[in-house]
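Researcher: Please predict.
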Amino acid sequence: MSLLNEETPNITLTFSLPPDFIAPLDGDSETIIDIQVANANQPIKVKNWRYPSITDGQFSFSFAHHYLDISVKYRINIQMFHNQQPLLLEQDYFVIVNHAPYHQTLHLSPIGYLYVEAQEPKAVAAEQAVTVSLHETGNPEVELVRVTHDEQTATSFYLKYDPDDVVPGKRYALSGIENRYHQRISVSPGPIELLPAPQPASSRLLLTFNQWLDTPLRLFTDTIGKIR
């Protein structure tokens, strides 16, 4: 499935969701993709797309790259809403483009999942496996989940957690340890809200009204019917 705009698609992003994530079929749904140039003195808005649907699995999205002979850092923000409730964690993704055409896969984190990158790709022996912990920020003893990866590679994976164990609006953090020598390893993303704080009804109404005022022309392709 592709979500392509009417300009020349020089940069293609593939958004990937966990294999067991299933998009809701009923109710009111929307996908919003916002892209800005992030390495200017002030962020430059590239465009904001809205689609009256959501999907699962993988889908592609393309936009034009208007810069030549310079490196451009794009900030990508994507959100899916079902009945005005967010389905994805609030995250910014950064894509650095030196030359177009360009393609990159971005792994999205629905609520209940966190896409983790633990180390550079390389072979890891079983006794050198890494342990990754998801815990309260500044309080590693209060863990939500802990996993040990003893595969041939320990690089990136989805860490599942129970949203019922999460305090809405509270930030949580990751930490990682290499098990053989007990050395800490870098783990991303940084501190993040795993469940958004509930919005007052007045704030939700204002957000809906502002979105209605700012809604651009919706774009469809011959594959848009595949989006739920």
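Model: Confidence is low (pLDDT under 50) at residues 215-228.
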